[in-house]
Amino acid sequence: MTDIDLALRERFGLSEFHPWQREAIEELLEGRRRVIVIAPTGGGKSLCYQLPAAVLEGTSIVISPLIALMEDQVRALTARGVAATYLASTLEPEEVKRREREIFKGRYQLVYVAPERLESPWLVDRLAGIRPALLAIDEAHCISQWGHDFRPSYLRLGEIIERLKPPRVIACTATATPIVRREIQERLGLGSEQSAVILRGFSRPNLHLAVVESDSSTQRRKRMLHALRDALGNPDKPKGGAIVYAATRRNTEKVAEAVAKSGWRVAPYHAGLAASVREDVNRRFANRSLDVVVATNAFGMGIDRADIRTVVHVQAPGSVEAYYQEVGRAGRDGQPAHGLLLTSSGDLGLRRRLIGFSGGRDPGGVQDPAHVQQQWRLFLDLMRYVEAGSCRHDFILRYFGDEQETLGGCGHCDVCERLEERGEEGGPRSASEEEAILVRKSLAGVARNQGRAGLTAVSDMLHGTDNERLRRLGLTELSTHGLLRDHPKAWVLALLRRLITAGLVDLSTGEFPIPYLTPLGIATMKSEEPVRVLVPPPEVRQPRAHKNDRQASERELPNDVDPLLFESLRATRLDLARAKGVPAYVVCHDRTLLEIAAHKPTSVEALAGIHGMGPARIERYGEPFLATVSSHAP
Ligand code: ADP
Ligand code: ZN
User: Which residues surround the ion ligand 2 when the cut-off is CB under 5 Å?
Assistant: First the structure.
């Protein structure tokens, strides 16, 4: 038995490591000595620095913004015979001095410090003087100015690492989006090569995930009440608790009323309620005198209940990450639990308003266009989750970069269940033979494209469009030209999008993203892997983000507008918007597209005559729009 196994048993009273904990600890002690650990809350991250601190010679320093947590951990460590203490503003000055004296004598194995404390150069110097063996940064995402938990004092940690020169550094967080990860690496000087990134534990096998899109509010309400019934049973004898998330304060109150009418003990919860009221809701939910809380995203931190059987969203949350956090509150006891996301086309407009209203402000309250774009991008990622034709669990795991835990069809999400119904040809939870062929044909189309054209042109090629542009690109010559000619163009495009969210196709980064096959896409095309994608429903489905502008889809198009061309122009706009990471209206307004669809300009000069097409827009977007027009030429 190694030292760390022994310490695990004797000091921490645990019988075995989660495999990733061992990996992190070994990297920290004997490997690269620079480690980033990303695992969900409650996953067991603190062991990754506590155990090394307990076995290393010298003092380890942990930076943590959560004082209550420090107190808890210090108490638990002391009880286990690990000499630990903490420094925070809640202590009497005398007590701080006393502790500091002991710390500087090297009496402690582990010292927790609130980040604000390290703004004192004196303290940093003295800590440098004891040559700390390890520096741990907990809640490392607080360094990200994009996040909700931004702490200005975290920005100085890079500098503090340089001054303390700890031989080992570990950063922990439950927030795993690639952007935040990169920020942590950059600001802490933990470039990806020098440091081990360990990202694990995002899989939640006891959680059943489903999405229902419906534009009828009555339908959505019914589904929500149904979900409560299914998960909790009878209101007389509920089997556990439930959380219903709504996007606005007003809606929490309305939904809570409806839930109360069905006999549940329910309360709304949002930041507009008095602190005493919110505490009371937290307490009653924890002691089970409430069955359901209908809440905004303000409800979360203090939830102390493991028997939450379902989390229902009656409106789409702001990002995949927010969704994962919120739905992840179900089934903490390991028993089966459900997550249901209800969404309607109205959610897009709602989210835009919410982002413009509050989310688009930086920590100082100033509206920042980059921040608005960032939040909108995160929301569009969630919309991709909504329309994904592949396993929802795998989508989330891929989103977080937790590839190692992807399941290749989990069997407990709505998409896998629908795949299951399709028959057994390719094995369980894979598409029917017929659908599998469609998917393989599209993959072949992407492969044959060989970097020539963007997604829209590839879908035109598969659909069999024959025009000047496709000929110029050589796409009409390909054996895959027209392979899917029995399907509407919009459908083929929707299928290609699903291949992207399923991880079979990826887009190159750059001004004009080009689709290409991922290794999984290649294996699937060659039938080495079963097809685990649902093809879009047969009716021509508008790409989701088009519902962005509801008036446009609801109103009759003017007579002179070619509706197919208009749709293609919107698809082009969507591609451009996604490629640039801006909302579609920033590329141009519907009115501009309507005019293009009516006048069908074929030259830059003609395009300049269109409302809203100034020189800057023409420079940026002129070529793809002209190409779309020419691809519709008779
Ligand atoms: P995090 O910091 O990731 O939010 P914690 O470190 O607080 O999570 O751990 C949550 C709980 O999991 C703690 O009660 C801890 O004792 C327990 N735990 C951690 N590692 C293991 C393990 N290998 N085996 C069993 N329990 C563990
Ligand atoms: Zn699944």
Answer: 391, 393, 410, 413, 416
Q: Going by CA atoms, what residue is nearest to atom 12 of ligand 1?
A: 44
Q: CATH number for the 403-525 domain, one of 3.40.50.2300, 3.30.70.1290, 1.10.10.10, 1.10.287.3610?
A: 1.10.10.10
How is 206-230 classified by DSSP, letter by letter? TEEEEEEE-S-HHHHHHHHHHHHHH
Among all ligands shown, which has an atom nearest to the Cα of 392? Answer: 2
How far apart (Å, rounded) are the C-alpha atoms in residues 384 and 507? Answer: 15
Fold exhibited by the domain 207-344? Rossmann fold (3.40.50)
For 244, list phi and psi in degrees, rounded to 5.
-115, 125
Coil/strand/helix, residue 290:
coil
Q: Are domains 207-344 and 547-631 of this chain identical in fold?
A: no
Distance between Cα 39 and ligand 1 center (Å): 11
Which protein residues touch ligand 1 with a CB less than 6 Å away?
Answer: 14, 17-18, 21, 39, 41-47
Distance 618 CA to ligand 2 centre (A): 43
Going from the Cα of 246 to the center of ligand 2, the distance in angstroms, rounded, reads 25
Nearest CA to ligand 1 atom 13: 44
Question: Which run of H or E residues covers position 309?
Answer: strand 308-313
**C-alpha 415 to ligand 2 mean position (Å):** 6
Contacts for 512 with CB less than 8 Å, ≥ 6 apart: 454, 579, 624
In the prediction, which pLDDT does 402 show? 74
Task: Tell me the CA–centroid distance for residue 354 and ligand 2, in Å.
Answer: 30
Angle at 51 between CA 50 and CA 55, to 5 degrees: 120
Q: CATH fold of 547-631, please?
A: DNA polymerase; domain 1 (1.10.150)
Can you give the residue ranges of every domain in the chain? 4-199, 207-344, 403-525, 547-631
Q: What is the pLDDT of residue 555?
A: 41
What was the pLDDT predicted at 78?
95
What sections of 482-603 are H helices per DSSP?
Answer: 489-501, 519-525, 550-554, 563-580, 584-587, 590-599
| Probe residue for ligand 1, chosen from 12, 35, 41, 46 as the CB with the greatest number of ligand atoms within 8 Å | 46
CATH architecture of 4-199: 3-Layer(aba) Sandwich (3.40)
Nearest CA to ligand 1 atom 17: 44
The predicted-structure confidence for 481-530, as pLDDT tens digits, reads as follows: 999 999 998 889 889 988 988 889 988 876 677 899 999 999 999 999 98
Which are the contacts of 253, defined by CB distance < 8 A and separation ≥ 6? 268, 294
